[in-house]
Amino acid sequence: MEHFAVFRTPQTILYGRKSFQQVGVQAALKGRKALIVTDEVMLKLGYVDECQELLKKEGIESETYTGVESEPTDLYVSESLEKLKNTACDLVLSIGGGSCIDTAKAIAVLATNGGYIGDYRANRTSAKKAPLAHIAIPTTAGTGSEATDVTVITNTSDDVKMMMKQPAFMPDVAIVDPLLTVSSPAHVTAATGVDALSHAIEAYLSKRAHPMTDTIALSAMKLLVENIVTAYRDGNNLDAREAMSLGALQAGMAFTNASVCLVHGMSRPIGALFHVPHGYSNAMLLPAVLEFSKDLCTDRLADLGRIFKPDEARSDSEAAEIAVKSVKELCSTLEIPNLKEWGIDEGAFKKAIPKMAMDALNSGSPQNNPRLPSQEELENLYTMCYDYRLEKITR
């Protein structure tokens, strides 16, 4: 390596079945009163009540903010921050998908550093004071947000997804309990699983990858590739759920240190303008972007191909072809829709393509991709992805 690398993780990671039961013990080390940032689904599933009981056993009071409804916005951040201040909470706890965790990251930083969350974009403002302690508990095997120093918040005034990346956004504690993911329906399992796979793949393909991230990204890809279909078809298979949770965690650790690439750069504008959940939009874009990038990352895609089909891959070129084809087949098996099938109006989508392409390039993520697209190439990719057809499994 010509230059040094940095590798950041939460201070404490608890993972495995029943690790959720330790939330009260962990919270008692960090504060006395927690604001639980979550959504109505988690409330209905009983996870919030269980969390509050576990906190109460350790003498921790709690309040709840359940206003997160979709992709996190600056409105959710301002509402939950006001709730935190009005109830004198000194600890943030998130339980749910990446939207809940990202919202909690934002308020943990703003509670001690102040300002508008968008001020922290591109490090225009740095968090100089330590954030409130944050315990992140994912209930999907997808975003890996519990182990990243990134939060993505939509600016509701201009429909732009703002990515903030600073060490202060890293949760203090990640609790990854696969038992909490059993409630995820099949279509959510599929989309979040491909999202996690896209994290691992992009971390491995990124120009900023290094030996530490490579090791973890390869492990994540193997766990996810070998278990995602089983978890999709049998959501009660705890071995598959556990492998998916660990894979998503490792993928998060890999990409926060190596960065993401073109898939994520293109995905954020789709989420901001058409409100497609992040996991779905990543899954919709991954096959086409890999096809676009293949010729400039053949050796690395070959490693993915050998994970999918270890007995068929020969040369790097053949294995890279297998990787792209296998990702397409996987998305077909998991019934990942394209953007047209999702219900996005074609006219509205085509009209938005120039803005989406510009927003994607301005995000910085495409610059990490093995092949950097021009504005025109990016617009063509968006057009292709609108009604992209996946290859069906023939065997």
Structural commentary:
The protein is an alpha/beta fold and 395 residues long. The chain has 2 domains: 169 residues, 3-Layer(aba) Sandwich (Rossmann fold); 201 residues, Dehydroquinate synthase-like - alpha domain (Dehydroquinate synthase-like, alpha domain). Helix content is 53%, strand content 11%. It contains 15 helices and 8 strands. It has a 6-stranded parallel β-sheet with strand order 1-8-5-4-2-3, sandwiched between helices. A two-stranded antiparallel sheet has the order 6-7. Helix 9 crosses helix 14. The chain is globular. The termini are far apart.
Please identify the structural class as seen in this structure.
alpha/beta
Per CATH, the architecture of the largest domain is: Up-down Bundle
Q: What gross morphology would you assign?
A: globular
Major pleated sheet: 6 strands, parallel
Q: In angstroms, what is the radius of gyration?
A: 20 Å
Low-confidence stretches: none
The CA-CA distance between the termini, in Å, is 42 Å
Number of helices: 15
SSE string: EHEHHEHEHEEEEHHHHHHHHHH
The residue fraction in helices comes out at 40-55%
Identify the strand order in the major beta sheet. Answer: 1-8-5-4-2-3
Query: In percent, how much strand structure appears in the residues?
Result: 5-15%
The CATH homologous superfamily of the largest domain is termed Dehydroquinate synthase-like - alpha domain
Could you write a compact summary of the structure shown?
With 395 residues, the protein is of the alpha/beta class. Helices cover 53% and strands 11% of the residues. Strands 1-8-5-4-2-3 form a six-stranded parallel sheet, sandwiched between helices. The protein has a two-stranded antiparallel sheet with strand order 6-7.
